[in-house]
Amino acid sequence: MRDFIARPEHGIVWISGASSGIGRALALKLAGEGYKVAVTARSHEKLVELQAEVSGLSGSIVVLDGDVTDAEDMEHAMASIEYEHGTLAMAILNADLCLPVHAEDLNRADFERTFAVNLSGVVNCLLPAIRHMKAKGQGQIAIISSVAGYGGVPTGAAYGATKAALINMAESLKFDLDKMGIRIQLVSPGFVDMPAMRKNALLTAEPLSPDEAARQIAAGLKSQAFEIAFPKRFTTMMKLARLLPYSAYFALVNRVTGWRERPSLTDHHPVTPHPAE
Question: Which InterPro entries does the UniProt entry name for this protein (predicted)?
Fold first, then answer.
């Protein structure tokens, strides 16, 4: 039996974090393929601008304001889809925040903000989406993770931790969702050209454009694959590196990033004082 693949006639696609980057590009891509796309983000103005761009396309965009870190907002967004716009056929959980973390200057707020958006934000969308799809007996969910979740890298203590958690979450949920007729996929992009990602230690090659990432994801959503990972060579190398013994893994990452040779953060400016100091 083949897994459910959402088509435009099945209902609405919901994309969180759609005001910029991959989410925005994917909303335009799917609208161009005839899907009705509900988009969520905190910036109403950017979502309205996005909605205006689909004029003339075969699909459409519905603006649903909301903050993924607010569970009640996401419940309201799901209720709006269900009672005003129709059946939710696919949810693409994409909201994302990347804050570099340096051990020389750890900041609790960086961890809390990253976890709230990247991890709790996914859960806040996931729960109402699954509840709706369970009642319908079918649905498709895509969780946007990252190759940063494959293994620890410099500056990735907060971001990578959330992406590793999303990988485990998607793998674990698949066992039960398969029995419910709900298809879940994991999306693991390489580095995409967004302002926050330009500071990533592993960004040693030209990053993908959001449009190219959207093209790859849109194609993967129509496949039977559990994981949509791209570019293939880079993501495969990252997976293989994680199979190395720790001594070899740390040596490889240090060599690829040149991290050991980089000056310490404290060599440039003093660290932020702890609130108790």
Answer: NAD(P)-bd_dom_sf, SDR_fam
Residues with Cβ within 8 Å of residue 50, at least 6 apart in sequence = 18, 19, 24, 27, 28, 39, 61, 63
| Domain-embedded: residue 275 | no
- Residue 11's nearest CA partner among 60, 50, 54 is 60
DSSP conformation class of 116: I
Distance CA 231, CA 84 (A): 38
Q: Is residue 215 part of a domain?
A: yes
Count CA atoms closer than 13 A to 8's CA, side-chain side.
12
Environment class of residue 68 by beta-carbon count within 10 Å: exposed (0-12), middle (13-18) or buried (19+)? buried
Domains of the chain: total: 1
What is the Cβ-side half-sphere exposure of residue 128, based on CA atoms within 13 angstroms?
A: 23
- The CATH number that applies at residue 79 is 3.40.50.720
What is the extent of the structural domain holding 33? 8-259
pLDDT digits (tens, 9 = 90+) for 171-229: 999 999 999 999 999 999 988 765 554 455 555 556 789 999 999 999 999 999 999 99
